[in-house]
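check these tokens.
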Amino acid sequence: QVQLVESGGGLVQPGGSLRLSCEASGFTLDHYGIAWFRQALGKEREGVSCIGHSDGTAYYADSVKGRFTMSRDLGKTTVYLQMNSLKPEDTAVYYCATAWWRDATLRPSAYDFWGQGTQVTVSS
């Protein structure tokens, strides 16, 4: 059974940093496309970053480009989202999602398996 568990969220001041982790249980992520999404209160789910199954290139939403870095180690079960220069508008529940043999995409409907989410709050 595919399960994803996010961790690393919390409360941080504007300009601060957090690193989120997404741990896959029972399988490595080598042949899976994987992405980070976020959903702020009252808003639609938004794609943040993604890596396709075939290479390690990460793609980012314009709203986080230059501030967030997504990484994945081949043969491993964890992906990370390093978030720097955080802004209040980054406040949301952050989710990781995955699908077998998926190319890089920020469309939520493309992913089959989702974690439960981790809350990130950016506030002074």
Observations:
- The longest strand covers residues 92-100.
- Residues 64 and 124 are 20 Å apart (CA to CA).
- The chain has no helices and eleven strands.
